[in-house]
Amino acid sequence: MIRLWRAVAWLAMLAVGVCVASATTTTRAAAEDARNVFEVHRVKVDVTAATAAAAKDLALAEAEVRAFETLFDRLAPARQRASLGKVPPAQIQAATRSFWVTEEKVSPVRYLATLNYAFRADRVRAIARERGVPLITQISPRVLVVPVYEPGDGQRLLWEEENPWRRAWAGLTADGLVPIVVPAPGSAGTGPGDASQAVAGDSTQLAALASRLGVFEVLVAVASPTGAAATRTLNVTLKRKPSFAPQSETTVTVRREANESDDDHFARAALVTLNTLEDEWKVANLVQEGGNTIAAVDVAVGDLAAWLAVQPRLEKLPTVERVDALLFARDRVRVNIHHTGTPAELSARLERAGFSIISSGSVWLVRPAQGQGQRTTSGRT
Prior knowledge:
The structure is a single chain. The chain has eleven helices and 14 strands. By secondary structure, the protein is α+β, with helices and mostly antiparallel strands. Helix 6 (164-170) packs across helix 9 (262-284).
């Protein structure tokens, strides 16, 4: 009887702890994600007018519109982006939560500044709905970029200092929906013989490096030049392990512009490649219209701490409205996932987020990736 009472008491405390802790964790995580996704940084302006005050007014108006357009470039798939059209400045101003200046120079007739903007998520979504533009606000898991450069004559560069393709990726400011990780030369797991293995798709080596860096997806980006130096074209082949795109291999071609330096060409090619990756992420995460659905799911976890770590990940999936915990067992939690769209779409999103799924009748068994939601032991390093 005492054991039964203790068990009931433990479950009651567990349920309360889950509700309180997960609400706090999820709210904080959601707030951080929303703040990051709906903020645009480093908008540079340089405006000249009759007076400094007039120049500043023109610059602020210009920066606000450019920041808003940058936000939609970030959140809307490229094909649907054109549907936005020209949004009236007054509507953009109403959607602006705040702005702040990080650099500023003023002369009697000139205003130069670097500005940052935070937009209201509800107003931005309303504008998107009015114009039929879908928005993707789900941030991808971090992607490990393996930048292989093939200059010719069978040579391959990867982690070497002299690899211009690696330097281009390392210099990117990735503030979109796909955060990237570019290891520095000499860091753990980066050796001189890795390039050929990466091109060959050595899953063991790539998985080991990804595990050390705490990432789920690996992008092998192989760049090779063709043509004369002045009109050189960089041909980039992208291979993913695993892949969130419909196809696991994509080719990007970036031709050198007139008077463009080598470094600028590589930097632009890396940016075009990253934009391609981000657009594929957005297309893969488009939320299809559909009725509300409830999926009964068993989540395999080792303990309460593991469940508290996994629940926010489930609740942040694009189509998920809420996750209700129903029953706590020794090695799993039975939940109802309230979501929009079809079960197949939910399954695909779970897998892209790093979960594995075993279907058993009307209830799925969902397992987090190894090390996420597993019971910890003293021997783990």
